[in-house]
Amino acid sequence: EVQLVESGGGMVQSGGSLRLSCAASGFTFSTYHMSWVRQAPGKGLEWVSSISVGGNRNYDDSVKGRFTISRDNNKNTLYLQMNSLKPEDTALYYCSRGWGLGDNRGQGTQVTVSS
Question: Does the structure show a pLDDT above 90 at 17?
Fold first, then answer.
């Protein structure tokens, strides 16, 4: 069974930083592209960033230069370092298996940025 468990969310002020983690199990993590997606209140699911099996990274323009996606295949863990956070980054953040929106997501971790 695929399991993705996100953690690391919280409430920060504008300009602050957070590091999200996603512990993966139930599949061979190193052989899958992985992504982060988010859902703001009242809005649809939005792709944030993806990292390929080989370590290539892609970011939505709204987070480019502020967020960094990474992975540790030895720990089966995906990360998202978020710097210079803005109120518009407030959302429920999900780890997702695959490129883009992916095919499996965890329960999410809430990020709230106050102005």
Answer: yes
